[in-house]
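Technical note accompanying the year-one report. For the benefit of new consortium partners, we illustrate the data format agreed upon in the data management plan: each record pairs a sequence with a structure-token string. No post-processing was applied to the example shown here.
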Amino acid sequence: MPNRILSGMQPSGRLHLGNLLGALDNWRLLQKDHECFFFVADWHALSTNYEDTSRIKEFVQELLIDWLAAGINPDRAIVFVQSRIPDHAILHLLLSMMIPIPWLERNPTYKEKQEQIQDRDLSTFGFLGYPVLQAADILLYKADAVPVGKDQLPHLELTREIARRFNSLYQPVFPEPKELLTEFPKVVGTDGRKMSKSYGNTINLSDPELVVREKLKTMVTDPARVRRRDPGNPDVCPVFEFHHIFSPQPIIDQVNRECRTAEIGCIDCKKFVADAMVQRLSPIWEARATLLNNPHIIEEVVHQGCERATKVSHQTLEEVKAAMKI
């Protein structure tokens, strides 16, 4: 079993249910049995948002509040902000000197994002080289494993290639981090597509109860069920997917049965799932309120986390400099 785990998130907006179910719930479990480093990747956010940096600080703060409210425990995990530890930038610079350009150009995300994000110029040195910064983030802490989905495996393989190249050119310093394959559930948004900030279809962890209930009221359902008396098909209904995530089994069975016979309407179905979702989110909302009223808690967590992370990063950087004889 891997001992040291590293993972991070970009502060690109408010966290939503997809982030909670796809990452934070997994982090919360990992921190129980592993040495975990969780960091806010604010320098990474610059790779696609360099033209407008006005809200990055705000999103960093919101991200940290959501992490702690969702159960990330700074007594068990090291929580820190990337930009507060200059060692990330130094190792990124040193590694960038030895990385062949074709390695970066073949990164599948490089062209995909350029095609997907049309409103920004991503033909920058920083965007091309962000996998090197990503590798520096991982290697700086000698992580044994990184939680990833299958789509992120090429990024981690590039990190291993960079580690091998450094170890071969100089002397062995870096372990090759393994993937900790995680099944990130596809969480649907209010419009039936994958929940994403770019689609504007999210239910955010910071949304109050009334907003959550209103968003669910407008959520798309079985498109073939036009009238209340029409039988529905839960198998094609995005709301029913939320029932599988949040509702107890008796409610799931009831909705599955009564929707197909039109005994229950979409309004009642949505109320059931809203009640279950609110029950799940209520502890997070309570924790968020405490943290919002006590911002010094966040600063103290980050300060202590950066101190602990820096002890590890300094040691690694000294080994790198010794290996490179600089």
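Partners are asked to follow this layout when depositing records. The chain has two domains: 4-187+295-324, 207-288.
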